[in-house]
Every structure is written in structure tokens, then in C-alpha cells.
Amino acid sequence: MSTATGTATENIATAPIAKVGKPAPDFNMPSTKNIDTLAENVKLADYKGKWLILLFYPLDFTFVCPTELIHFSDRLEEFQGIGAEVVGVSTDSVHSHRAWLKTPLDKNGIEGVKYPIASDTAGKLARQYNILVEEANIALRGLFIIDPEGTLQYSVVQSLNIGRSVDETLRVLQGLQTGGLCSADWKPGQANLKA
Q1: CA pair distance 91, 94, nearest whole angstrom
Q2: How high is the pLDDT of residue 16?
Q3: What secondary structure does DSSP assign to 9-43, as a single string?
Q4: Phi/psi at 64 (nearest 5 deg)?
Q5: Which three-class secondary structure state does DSSP give residue 102?
Q6: Are the C-beta atoms of 27 and 19 separated by less than 8 Å?
Q7: Catalytic residue positions, numbered
Q8: Distance of alpha carbon 169 from alpha carbon 179, whole angstroms
Q9: Is the pTM of this model over 0.85?
Q10: Is the dihedral of CA 63, 59, 141, 77 positive or negative?
Q11: Which of 92, 126, 134, 181 has its CB 3.0 to 4.6 Å from that of 139, i.e. a possible disulfide?
């Protein structure tokens, strides 16, 4: 029994930690990609060649989370129009995700959300992104942008009670896509700074 515990501890200790400018930690998680069967996982490899927004949130059936997930879904075509996809992630089970996705908006559900929600029940990926609240096994609100080569380019983590901005996420994504230097409050269409 001590060997199994030692191995688990070693795996946690040696798992890569997400760092901006470094390869994003790999993942392969159950998801709602096929909401009927729940048999289709999401993998980092699925998004090679595209930008990926990983949107961690604490729990299904809560109050701030649906506002975020719905707003990102409402603007999904804008993300896709600039070569990006969105994946939601929490430590809830994929069955909980499906139930929430089948619950109408007026009943605190997220029915109609158009991107997959992944299940990180053991908190492995949240731990690698250093956003796992261990004692509760829930993720903080972490938003991460991974580039088409699989490198983590942006990381923002915030308190559980504050929702994230779709506009700011789009602005940062478009700034990253310029490949150049963007000034404070840079807006899409503005010139990059000259070095």
C-alpha cells in the first residue's frame, strides 16, 4: 500500500506545472463533446494548429459560473473566426456536466452552451495549472490561452466570486496573434509598438 501512495505522490511531484512560454500540460479528459454517449474525450492534441482557451471554473450548478460559460458560448463564433476554440473544465463529473447542459437557463442551467465541458474529477490538470483548491477539490477561475503549437501564452487566475470578461479574452488573444509588442489597452486594428 505504501508503494501505491509513494507512486501517486511521485506522479504529482513530477507532473509538469503550467508556465507561460512553456509547453502546456497535456490532457485527455472525459467531456460533453458527445453529450448523448459521453464517450468522446477532449485532448490537447485535438487542438493542434488552433488557439485554445481553457476556461476552468469551480462547480456546476452555481451562480457566477453559468454567466461566464454562457457568455463565452454566445461569442464562440468570434473565437472560431480567429482560429480559436474554447473548452470549459471543472472537477465535476461528466454526468453532472451533462445534467447542467440539459437544464434550461431559467433554472440555473447552461442549456445551449456550444463548446465541450471537460471533467477533471481528480483535479490533475487544475493542479498542474496551480489553481486547485486541494481541500475542496475545486478549481479557481483560471483562464489559459494555448497557441497552435501547444505553448501556454497567457494565464489569469481570479477569485471564485468574480466572473471573467469575454471582451478582454478576445483582446488578449488578438494581441497574441499579432506576434508583436502590444501597448497597454491595445485594441485590435492598432499598430504594434516598434522595438
Answers
A1: 9
A2: 83
A3: HHHHHHSPPP-TTSBPPP-EE-BSTTTTT----EE
A4: -80, -40
A5: coil
A6: no
A7: 65
A8: 16
A9: yes
A10: negative
A11: 126
Looking from the CA of 53 toward its CB, the CA atoms found within 13 Å total 33
Contact present, 17 and 125 (Cβ < 8 Å)? no
Question: CA 114 from chain center: how many Å?
Answer: 14
What are 7's three cell numbers?
Answer: 507512486
Burial class (CB within 10 angstroms; exposed 0-12, middle 13-18, buried 19+) of 61: middle
- Cα separation values, 152 from 23, 38, 70, 75, 121, Å: 6, 27, 24, 22, 22
How is residue 18 written as a grid cell? 503550467
Q: Strands 138-139 and 51-56, how do they pair?
A: unpaired
Exposed e or buried b for every residue in 11-20, given b needs 16+ CB within 10 A?
eeeeeeebee
What are the pLDDT digits (tens) for 43-95? 999 999 999 999 999 999 999 999 999 999 999 999 999 999 999 999 999 99
